[in-house]
Amino acid sequence: MNAPTTDKPATAKPTPRTAAERALDTTRDTAREAVRRTAQGIEANPLAVLVGGVAIGVLAGAVIPRTEQEGKLLGPVGKRLTDTAAGAAQAAKEAGKAELDALGLNKDAARDQVGKLLDGVVKALSSAGSAAAAKASSK
Q: What is the DSSP letter of 66?
């Protein structure tokens, strides 16, 4: 004789509590994995993180309006920073120009080189034309 089967199906619907617990566990695992990946990224390339942080700070500073108090307190500092940066850029430009001049790489030298190159091209074309004319007349 066969006894009646009273087993529950293997795909029984989970209770809402069980589903919520599973979702919470999945969320925790996902958050842990994101933290781990972020830490690895920071360790692998800290300079990129620093640059990104500075960029976000600059963007936030540009978007968020300044208060009157901030203007009073930080205005002179911003002016000094701007002046210092402009001075550093000018000094770098002048140092670069001086180094290029020392190597003979300046506007006048470049103009002379281009002139010599064009003279050489004109002479080569003239020689080629003369040779072609001589060859054509000898036939």
A: P
Q: Is the pTM of this model over 0.85?
A: no
Cα atoms found within 13 Å of the Cα of residue 12, Cβ hemisphere only: 8
As given in the structure block, the two tokens for residue 19 are 């589903």
DSSP strand E in the chain: where?
none
User: Is 23 within 8 Å of 15 (Cβ atoms)?
Assistant: no
Per residue in 38-76, pLDDT tens?
888 878 888 887 888 888 888 887 788 777 877 777 778
d(CA 136, CA 50): 71
- Kindly report the backbone phi and psi dihedral angles of residue 100, in degrees, each rounded to the nearest multiple of 5, phi listed first: -65, -40
Task: Please give the full DSSP string across 7-33, using - where no structure is assigned.
Answer: PPPTTPPPPHHHHHHHHHHHHHHHHHH
Describe the crossing of helices 46-63 and 16-44 by its angle, rounded to 10 degrees.
110
Which string of b and e fits 58-70 if b means at least 16 CB within 10 Å?
A: eeeeeeeeeeeee
Distance CA 71, CA 79 (A): 11
